[in-house]
Amino acid sequence: MEPGAVDMVVVEGERHTTVLLSGEMDRASCPHVRSRLRPLTARPLVLDVSGVTFFDAEGMRTVFRCARVCEAEGAALALVGLRPYAAKVFRILGLDRDVPLCGSMEEALWCVLPRTDEEIREWLSG
Questions:
Q1: pTM
Q2: Alpha-carbon distance 5 to 117, whole Å?
Q3: Are 92 and 60 in contact (CB under 8 A)?
Q4: How many Cβ atoms are within 10 Å of 65's Cβ, its own excluded?
Q5: Which residues pair with 48 in a beta bridge?
Q6: Segment 23-57, tens digit of pLDDT
Q7: How many CB atoms lie within 10 A of CB 32?
Q8: Cα 108 to the chain's mean position, in Å?
Q9: Which spans in 1-126 are helix H?
Q10: Bridge partner list, 33
C-alpha cells in the first residue's frame, strides 16, 4: 500500500455492513474513502479502524460526516478499534457524542442494530 492510501474491505452482513479500514485517514485518502462509504450509509454501519495508523482532521471529519449521513438515512454508525490517541482526540472534539467509540464488535453491533424482543430477552436472561 502506498503512503497516504487506505485499504478498505466491505463485509455485508445480514443486518449490517462492516467496513475494515487500514492505512492513513488523511486529506489525501479521505475523498476516496468518502466516495466508497457513501453507498453504504443506508444500512447500519460498523467501521473497524483497528488498521488505521493515523487520523488527521480530515479523517475525523470523514467519519463524523458519514455518521450524519447514516443518521439522515435512518441508519447508525459505530467505530471499533480506534487507537488510544485518536480516541482521545475524538473525545476532546466531542465527536464521540455522535459517533459511538466501541471496544468490541459486539458493543458496536449493540450501538447500530435495532434489537428484537427475542434478543433483548436472551440478553437479560444471560
A1: 0.86
A2: 42
A3: no
A4: 15
A5: 20, 80
A6: 999 999 999 999 999 999 999 999 999 999 999 99
A7: 12
A8: 9
A9: 30-37, 57-72, 84-92, 105-112, 117-125
A10: none
